[in-house]
Design goal:
binds coenzyme A, about 35% strand, eight-stranded mixed sheet, about 30% helix, alpha+beta
Length: about 180
Amino acid sequence: MTFNLKNNQRLIIKEVTEEDASDLITYMSDVVGETPNLLYTPDEWQMTLEGEKTFIKNLKKVNTSVMYVGRVNGEVVTVANLQGNNKLKTKHRVELAISVKKAFFRLNIATYMMETLINKAKEMSITKINLGVFETNKPAIYLYKKFGFKKEGSMKRGIKMADTYQDLIYMGKCI
Ligand SMILES: CC(C)(COP(=O)(O)OP(=O)(O)OC[C@H]1O[C@@H](n2cnc3c(N)ncnc32)[C@H](O)[C@@H]1OP(=O)(O)O)[C@@H](O)C(=O)NCCC(=O)NCCS
């Protein structure tokens, strides 16, 4: 799938394959260093090529799990995924996660990735999308609200950074 960005560059979004593994490692190392809003710190995010390939392989074992990789001029600039499960009572729902490389913020990339994820969720007969977001991560909260996600709850002291706690906000969308 190809989308035109606000800066006239082209974003190409594809489902992840094992061939993306090496680029994904580089991407994640960069992104965890750029934002405090992901669960990993740069020191904690250590992934081998084999580990990444296994992760991708395992993801594909769950029917309702999917990961999309977005590239501009060949460079990975965004990754987003839905994580599902095979249990009868919970396989109608997935967990959403998304990130974009800082140099590519505000170009509509997350918007295109969210549209892609939501369309895919509908195609897979998913009826509920859940996510967790740090209380102070306003750009992400605005993004999710733009797509109709609503706050469903919060975990007090869900996140601790530099001795300061914040809530982890749970948001969801019925589709
Ligand atoms: C949140 C994030 C994914 C947004 O990506 P993006 O490609 O810049 O977003 P888009 O350009 O598609 O913008 C979509 C919407 O997000 C919101 N948004 C994005 N950045 C924003 C900002 N700095 N301030 C306020 N709203 C913002 C707006 O609602 C925007 O819609 P609008 O352009 O109609 O106003 C990106 O900032 C990011 O990857 N952050 C680091 C990782 C992260 O926080 N991931 C989410 C973890 S829960």
